[in-house]
Amino acid sequence: MKLLTLNAHAWMEENQHDKLKQLAAFINEQQFDVIALQEVNQSIEETPLSVDDLAAYYSADPEVVIKRDNYAYVLNGLLSDAYHWTWAPAHVGFAKYDEGLAILSKTPITATVSEYVSSIQDYDNYRSRKIVGIQTVVDGVQSWFVSGHYNWWKDEESFRGLWDRTIELLDPLAPAPVFVMGDFNNAAEMRGEGYDYVMQSGWSDTYSNAAVRDAGHTVIKAIAGWESNAEPLRIDYVFSSKAVEVQSSTVVLNGKTGPVVSDHFGIAVELEL
């Protein structure tokens, strides 16, 4: 099983269309089974798509309207083989986008989850946070894959409460394997904060369990939300609800393994259930 997670920073990148094509080419080459994306934007003022345009789309929320420039939709159209996918918005992003989360899957989606994990649920407040997940069968095993984009440990609404709510939502999905993938805004290097809290909750870090792994850093400079950062950080993860056999965890889309397409690098994980 091959997984990819990436904070896409959608439509905010210079040379965005070129980078989108580069990301599609990388996915075509690597053939990931499931892809989790964060900061997946669509213009609020853009034209809605018709039902006929959304053959591969599985709705996680019947009230969601997919616009013509939805980043996940455009990306999927560039892939050699279209993925099954879902998307849901969490809040207004960068003053002009519906900012949300997406999951793309090679295999058909059989169920979804789309819920707020923050108590703040003001669509105009970027601290309104959701998770979006799918159920699908990969390598003969029915599993859940969830995309999340979380607050910082020291925030108006701390990561701690968001993770507690995430566990509350995902616990009923057991005993199926569950993977939470995404931008956690909590550095593994910081003791006593978000990363340690996830570990103490009984979840496994596929990076730590990988037989082969690199430094794991997905942010190496100052970016939005980390404006004062001057050191490499590991803030993007693939966590699993139970320990699994992980062959490798690799930083990708970093200019070494794949082109740089976002202000975050991606994480590719290869594992067996």
TrEMBL record:
The keyword Disulfide bond does not apply. Transmembrane segments: none annotated. Pfam families: Exo_endo_phos. The lineage of its organism: Bacteria, Bacillati, Bacillota, Bacilli, Bacillales. The keyword Nuclease applies. This is Endonuclease/exonuclease/phosphatase family protein. CDD domains: RgfB-like (cd09079). Residues 17-264 form the Endonuclease/exonuclease/phosphatase domain. Keywords: Endonuclease, Hydrolase, Nuclease. GO terms for molecular function: endonuclease activity.
